[in-house]
Amino acid sequence: MRDYIQRTPHPPPTEYITLSFYQFRPIDEADVFKIQYYFLTDLRPMDVVGRIYVSSEGINAQISCPKNRVEEFKTYYATHWPIFNKIRFNPAMSEGKAFKKLHVRAKKQLVSDGIDNSTFDLNNEPTYLTPEEWHKELSSLSEPPILIDMRNHYESAIGHFENAIRPDVTTFKENIEAMFEICKGKEDQDIYMYCTGGIRCTRSGALLKSKGFSSVKMLQGGVTAYGRYIQEQRGDAKEKADPSTSTKDAKVHSIYKGKNFTFDKRLGEPITEDVIAKCHTCGAPCDLYLNCSNMACNLLMISCPSCLQKHEGTCGSQSCVDMVKELNEKQKQIQKDHPGLIGMKARPGIKPYHEHRLRVRPLTVLEMRKNEVLS
Ligand SMILES: [Zn+2]
Ligand SMILES: [Zn+2]
């Protein structure tokens, strides 16, 4: 395709901007690996980190780019990737490095639903509403619309749009099935849908339209873009507001409540201050996602600070607590015997729940473990 780009090293960056972008576009299977290779070799010298997925369907990326090199990255992208020229850079609400490393992976599907692309028209896209259009249209409806959250249960658990239908699903494939169930017989009605950044709706919207649904509207840039819109409105409102009114009164009424779940180390960014979820252990209002500190368990859980402290940062199951306590003791001993040596943080010791479906269902797993102990 072209030559490797040489770049001079910069000092390690400290400030980062997180961007996401995607485009469905058929690519020759043989080119997928070349694209993967070029992204890896080109972006590393730019200190870009994140996850880029390439497939014969197109590209889907979430990256953190050093703040002072964003323009360089955009110029690089515009120059070298004309094949993906329909992307929109979708910045995250908060600044900061959301990833540790750069991963570029070749995937079979960008978002897995197992549906063959030859069975529908991906170009039959839904109508894109900008966050402002979305906000105004949904705020002005007299009846609650058919509004579908195209994300998984653990994502919508900590934040969602008012009146949204939130299928209790663990995978995108299940959500597609739920979507068809919800929309059955409503071919002539307006259907609204949203997800984190838009890619899941671009695909599921095209599926609906190909099946004869006439009016499918999606939130362009997803919850991430809506969050930024609300953020900007508040910023503007603060500036324009009469000094005699409090900041609170000047706030735009967000029709999204709570956090936007993100698939990076932040595991979510707040859009409003509402806490709509509960601690999985004690039931106190909480929307802080964490992984069990026993790496072999790795359960994705919502845990309040007091439960976290009580259970050594684990999911609270006895085996995880014991394991982490034992490891911490060993760690202390190693530190004492060999100062400066960093030992292993965890080791297998509990039946691992690497299967995605279970890893994100902490209440089910904890219930199962309880039964295992009893039997
Ligand atoms: Zn708790
Ligand atoms: Zn655990």
Automatic annotation (TrEMBL):
SMART domains: RHOD (SM00450). It holds the Pfam family Rhodanese. InterPro entries: Rhodanese-like_dom, Rhodanese-like_dom_sf, Rhodanese_C, TRHO_N. Residues 141-235 form the Rhodanese domain. Gene3D superfamilies: 3.30.70.100, Rhodanese-like domain. It comes from the Eukaryota. This is Rhodanese-like domain-containing protein. It comes from Lobosporangium transversale.
